[in-house]
Every structure is written in C-alpha cells, then in structure tokens.
Predict the 3D structure of the following.
Amino acid sequence: MRPAEVTDLHLKDCTLPAEGWGELLLSGSKPRVGSGRTDTGESFDTRGLKKRARKATRPVPIPPVLVAMLREHLKKYGAAKDGRLFRASRGGHVLSKEYGEIWQAARHAVLEEWEVPTPLAGYPYLLRAACVSLWLASGVAPAEVARRAGHSIAVLFRFYARVIHGSQSSTNAQIERALNAADDQVEGPGPA
C-alpha cells in the first residue's frame, strides 16, 4: 500500500479471517497536502486511488502473517471512531514525521549495527518496492503483481525490470517443467 492508502484504511475495508489469507479493499487515499490546499481546511485531502477513477477500488489479498498482525493491532489498539485502523495518539491522522521517527526507531531495533547507516529500509515507502520485488522474484505473474500494487504493466516493467530480467534461470526452469509436463501428457502413461 502507498502511505496515503494506509492512512485511509478502515476496518470495514478489511477481511481478516482467523486462519488463511485475508483481503484489503482499498478505495481511497488521504495524503497530507496542507490545510491551504483543501476545500475543507483540513491538512489531509480525501482522494481516490492513484491514477484511477474516484470511486474505483483495488482488492489486495494479504497473507496469513499480515492478517495476524492486523488482528493483533486491532485487539491492542482498536480502530478510530471513524473506523480507521491507524491513528495518532490523540486520534488524528498519523503524520509522516511521526511514522518516520517510528520507522527509524524500528530500524535501530531490528537491523544489525553495521546495517543502520546503510540505505537498507531507509524509509517506509521502500517496503512497497520490496514487496513488489518479492512477488516478482517469487514467480507471480507480472499482470497480477501490477494489479495488486495498483500499477500499470508499463510502470511495473519500467521500475522493476531488473527484478524481472534477473530471473532468467528460474524462468527457464519453469518453461522446461511445463514442456516436460506437456510431453508426458502427449506420450501418455505407456503400455500397461
């Protein structure tokens, strides 16, 4: 998810089963733009998903580990009065300054000492790029990766080409398995 999509994530948009995969139904974003740039005078603007019609939605399947994390978050913190999953300590929107500070503290807590000064996970948006790269490297079809990430295929190939092109040997193995399976089906089981 993009940070502005996370800001606008509501409990009603989440399917979080006790076991198995869940789903987030993304329907909007709430970027911080400054109170002088909104019609309401608030510093966060309500918008549709990036590069989509205002009322468009994007369903994103989420793995069991993320379902469990979100269930635990809700158990511990609940949702805001308006149903948002994430909020600041006084109930408002989390500011990028705040989650940036929390992000840096988390980096110091989980990274090796020598990793902290490197660009590794330098800022929260890099998680999105890491996620898309993981999906591609895992062999998920690029069209499905683009759909889940809210990208066009052109954007996906432009920004993640090295991940896609770096998988030639695994792609060759996939094609070889498919060809061998096709040969097995054509030849049949053999004489009885």
